[in-house]
Design brief:
The protein is of the alpha/beta class and about 230 residues long. The protein has one domain: TIM Barrel, CATH 3.20.20.70. The chain has nine helices and eight strands. The protein has an eight-stranded parallel beta sheet with strand order 1-8-7-6-5-4-3-2. Strand 4, helix 4 and strand 5 form a beta-alpha-beta unit. The termini are close together.
Length: about 230
């Protein structure tokens, strides 16, 4: 599976979002963190900003909804221009119905798990999804340290994906950097959200290229990729 790098605009300059989108030329997606100050203790942006950003960039938007009532709000982000919408299973009332609605509206459906949420109870839901997001920090703030205790969970998730023969992307978000991306790739992740590691770099586009090269080198020899 192809490695994908998704810079998180949570670490970008919100006053210059259009320019910051251009600064990561070569990125696969722009990761947009939507927080409501209820599901997580932080408030970021909403539908109007996503709508404006979608008009300002050709890079597809990967919206991560850290919000309550995603069943109500997620479809609006597809309408605003998001090409992928991630909801948290802990907040969704009907995750299968929501995933199907997101897909029906023309976007990729993705489900996120907080660090303490196990993957195993949701094994039967995996065919309904295009991507699964394993949080490698507690959601709510950028710049946190990577939780290496999530690596076994990434491995178990990759095993479930392989067991069912699914073309499901496995994303990691939180503390992904030059010092942690190789561990994530070896464990089975193929989509990497990077915030401060990209936007905190002198040359964000070069940071994207360097992270991609690191992940690709590991993926070539990773046991899960060889088995796929």
């Amino acid at each position: 599976m192809a490695v994908q790098i998704n810079p998180s605009i949570l670490s970008a300059d919100f006053a210059r979002l259009a320019d910051e989108a251009k600064a990561v030329d070569g990125a696969d997606w722009l990761h947009v963190d939507v927080m409501d100050n209820h599901f997580v203790p932080n408030l970021t942006l909403g539908v109007p900003v996503v709508e404006s950003l979608a008009r300002a960039t050709d890079t597809p938007l990967d919206c991560h909804l850290m919000i309550e009532a995603p069943d109500r709000w997620a479809p609006q982000y597809v309408e605003a221009g998001a090409s992928s919408v991630t909801f948290h299973v802990e907040a969704a009332a009907a995750p299968v119905r929501l995933a199907r609605e997101i897909r029906a509206k023309g976007a990729r459906a993705s489900m996120a798990l907080r660090p303490a949420t196990p993957i195993e109870p949701y094994e039967d839901l995996l065919p309904e999804l295009d991507m699964l997001l394993i949080m490698t920090v507690e959601p709510g703030f950028g710049g946190q340290a990577f939780l290496d205790i999530m690596l076994p969970k990434i491995r178990r998730t990759r095993e479930l994906i392989s067991k069912h023969g699914l073309e499901l992307w496995l994303q990691v978000d939180g503390g992904v950097s030059a010092s942690t991306i190789e561990q994530c790739a070896e464990a089975g992740a193929d989509v990497f959200v990077a915030g401060s590691a990209v936007y905190g770099a002198e040359d964000p586009a070069e940071a994207v290229r360097a992270l991609r090269a690191q992940a690709e080198a590991v993926t070539k020899t990773a046991a899960w990729a060889c088995d796929h």
